[in-house]
Amino acid sequence: MATKNLSEYDLASVPSASGMKFGIVVAEWNYEITGALAQGAVDTLLKHGAKDENIVLKHVPGSFELTLGAQYLAEFTKVDAIIILGCVIQGETRHFDFICEGVTQGITNLNIKYNKPFIFGLLTTDNQQQALDRAGGKLGNKGDEAAVTAIKMLALKNELTT
Ligand code: RBF
């Protein structure tokens, strides 16, 4: 099966993001990749009508810190949804597994605890090339996909609560 291009989607299926407030938390590890994810996410939010002043972008040292960084954004700012961006590349030790499991479980818990969308934008790859391919390379940009997901989840929440 061909791998999906992360930046290709039906433009008409994305609701307007105007009036929505977004937090973005980005890991500094593998910044060549995570910086590109963040740029993709910001560009996509703006493209769909989000206002620059309604996007709060913060950095944390590594992917393991993403969960707490996201919780800080939920607790201490007025954002409606939080996009979580990191990149964990398989190394020689089992750190990969521990970090991926920790972040996945952490983000799952945040979604439930805050009843807000916390979007999983963590690349988990075997090598750097696979990550580059998904950070603005030949398979698009996971940051774009994460931004579209955040908009759609907020639109769903708005639809059901207004
Ligand atoms: N953080 C990442 O975001 N991506 C990685 O690929 C990554 N690999 C790591 C490998 C090792 C051996 C260690 C010790 C840490 C790694 N980290 C990575 C950093 C981790 O997410 C966290 O910032 C630190 O463990 C401090 O809590």
Structural notes for this entry:
With 162 residues, the chain is of the alpha/beta class. The chain has a single domain (21-161), classed as 3-Layer(aba) Sandwich (Rossmann fold), CATH 3.40.50. The chain is built from five helices and six strands, in the order E-H-E-H-E-H-E-H-E-E-H. It has a four-stranded parallel β-sheet with strand order 2-1-3-4, with helices on both faces. Strand 1, helix 1 and strand 2 (55-60) form a beta-alpha-beta unit. Helix 1 crosses helix 5 (142-161) and helix 2 packs parallel to helix 3. The chain is globular and about 50 Å long. The structure holds riboflavin. Riboflavin (RBF) binds at residues 27, 29-30, 61-65, 86-89, 91, 93, 95, 99.
Strand fraction? 15-25%
- Distinct compounds present: riboflavin
Query: What is the residue-averaged pLDDT?
Result: 96
Q: What is the percent of helical residues? A: 40-55%
What is the CATH C level class, in words?
Answer: Alpha Beta
Count every beta strand, where a strand is a DSSP E run of 2 or more residues.
6
Query: Uncertain regions: pLDDT < 50 for 5+ in a row?
Result: none
If helices are DSSP runs of H or I spanning 4 or more residues, what is the number of helices? 5
- The shape, in one word, is globular
Largest sheet: 4 strands, parallel
CATH architecture: 3-Layer(aba) Sandwich
